Amino acid sequence: MSGDMNSQQMDEPALKVSKLVKRYGDMVALDHFDLDVRRGEVFGLLGPNGSGKSTAINCILSLLSFESGTVRIFGREMTPSSYDLKRRIGVVPQNVAVFNELSVRENIDYFCSLYVPRKADRKDLVEQAIDFVGLGDFSSFRPGKLSGGLLRRLNIACGIAHQPDLIFFDEPTVAVDPQSRNAILEGIEHLNAQGATVVYTSHYMEEVEQICTRIMIMDHGRRIALGTAEELKGMVEAGEQVTVETLDLQDSTLAQLRALPLAQSADYDGKELVIHCRQGDHNLQDVLAVLESSGTNYGHLTSRPPSLNDVFLELTGKELRD
């Protein structure tokens, strides 16, 4: 990562996007979009398909032109010719982008060469990247010989070998095995601990909640919510989900449960009762009181707090995987 910075530089956000507008004909892809990523954080950027995420990232990287607005990276305006800024940025795309005719080591060396021209300067960087993603035993393999998880690790190594200060990870764990997913997430946390600022997009809410310090939800090219996972959960009505195993729930009891002040819905399939509640302090006690007073026999009972997926669904009206 880059060397010493004075306090004024440290106060500058790693990334600041102001009132970005991007149109495709009559369609507004980004509608005065704002984004502020602090130095040293892992920032989650979420949105349903078509929300403008990819367009925003491509505009930030100066891969797309835009109608109006500004993009500043480490306090300086980003333009297509800001090559010194671009050297400080790493991108790990959703689609694996490597050369099948090159070995693992050759691929990493090639992508590193786009930022570090002298081969002597790259040698240690390439070896560090290979070690970092755990591909030491596969360094002479061609990509076609790698499993999906190892291929994803190669994709990451190619994006971070030049040791960038700001790294964009776009769906880096799609279709990988759990072991590789854990290795990738741990690697991102390690990069962050070394000083890198990370912008992370994913369809897996549990990953976002695990590694991101703050999360933005966007839709229709605009920011609709921003905060920590807990702050986002506090912005919506969705509360806990209570699930009860029972074989003798009466229709009258189900009607009582649906009439509870904070019950959003109550559904019963003959074996399992699922109640979605709005936020409240004693939803579980209220449910138990109805079951006890009606003499309902029940077995296993669970109460799950609201998830990021609940927040996303309430704010956008869509599942993240839509």
UniProtKB/TrEMBL annotation:
SUPFAM superfamilies: P-loop containing nucleoside triphosphate hydrolases. It comes from the Bacteria. Residues 15-245 form the ABC transporter domain. Coiled coil: none annotated. The keyword Transport applies. Keywords: ATP-binding, Nucleotide-binding, Transport. GO terms for molecular function: ATP binding; ATP hydrolysis activity. Pfam families: ABC_tran, DrrA1-3_C. InterPro entries: AAA+_ATPase, ABC_transporter-like_ATP-bd, DrrA1/2-like_C, P-loop_NTPase. This is ABC transporter ATP-binding protein. It comes from Bifidobacterium aemilianum.
